[in-house]
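Notes to self after the Tuesday call (sharing in case useful).
The group wants a holo model before anyone commits to mutagenesis around the pocket. I volunteered. Ligand is SN-glycerol-3-phosphate. Logging inputs and output together so the record is complete.
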Amino acid sequence: QTEITFWHAMGGALGDTVNQIATDFNASQDDYQITPVFKGTYEEALTAGIAAFRAGEQPNILQVFDAGAATVIGAKGATVPVQDLLIDNGVDFDIEDYISGVRYFYADSEGKMIGMPFNSSSPIMYFNENALEEAGVEAPKTWEEFENTTAPALVEAGYIPLSQSHSPWIFVENFFSRHNLPFATNNNGYDGADTEILVNSDEIKMHWSNVKEWLDEGYYNWYGASWDDNQTPFEEGKVAIWLGSSGSFGGLMAKDLPFEFSATYLPYWEAITTEPTQTFIGGASLFAMSGKSDEENAATAAFFQYLTSPEVQYMWHRETGYVPITEAAYEMAKEDGHYDRFPAAEVGIQQLSLPAGENTAGYRMGFYVQIRDVMNREFGRILTDETSVEDAFATIETEANDLLSRFAMTQQ
Ligand SMILES: O=P(O)(O)OC[C@H](O)CO
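Result:
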């Protein structure tokens, strides 16, 4: 039997589902044995994977989140492109089998799939249905509606109207996509490494100025930059609306919350656009690390094949809320009546399928994990009155462009 290892960052209920998939794969055949290992947060898993690669002790499979995509795809020789791995091991591969929103996010500039887009998500708006009913309001479609109608009514009813997780993901990257605004030069970074970030824009500064005002007026609260900081007060029923990952859906369902919840699309600013566009995928992708034997690569290919089968993809989608990554799995979920039972489970994939625009395919920027650190630091400073929105975005722009030019040098 060939043994392989899979380092991932799926904690809690997500980790249980990963373990179940691995157990089922091991039981489904006699040739291969996979061992999943939880390595902490996405950032920790990536750091551990890079360190292990340098020491020649890399796992066969490493899960890398969206923000690390450019770095790992740009690290030539560190991974075996998933498309090559599958084809070399006799697995049928057609990039068209994948839903359009995930097809090219982990592909190289020629469109070759480098990472297997295993757990793809989108940021969505969860809401406490009881709270909205008490306040006599609907889930807001626009940020204007939120601040003029929804938030005052929710405050009146005794709730903190809004919190949100992953500020860079939701209130920056997907803000640009939802409003079809350019986020970086070079076609959002896809056309070359000599890219400059366009984060210092009037639209996003307007948004963050409002976020700060909402905080001051009690319309919004920010509980910290860690993974669960802003989700917990929603689960406790204090916060009425929470922006988070579609991949949190399964965890929320499993918690049996003391209120009914649902979800819908991220609001947009009518002042910026009356034709809001789609968001792009978040979550993470699986990379086959290089330096492994043919037997082990065959085992990795077999696991990827298993993982992308409609049955396993549907099970993963159903249990977690990550979107089905293939059309076949999406069809299976529909035919099984999953969305009739849980309409909110379809919001992530529906939002990914809203009208596209020139700037809605995501971004490709190296050292982006560090750029997110800069953003998180500056957003914390805005919210605690240590800096102005204007200064914060100027700082983010300068430091991000410095990181991008350093990354560009690694690509020459
Ligand atoms: O919570 P996830 O797994 O959907 O990931 C959210 C972001 O994409 C992380 O960068």
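Two things stood out.
The beta strands are 2-8, 32-38, 61-65, 79-80, 116-121, 123-128, 160-164, 239-245, 261-264, 282-289.
The chain is about 45% helix and 15% strand.
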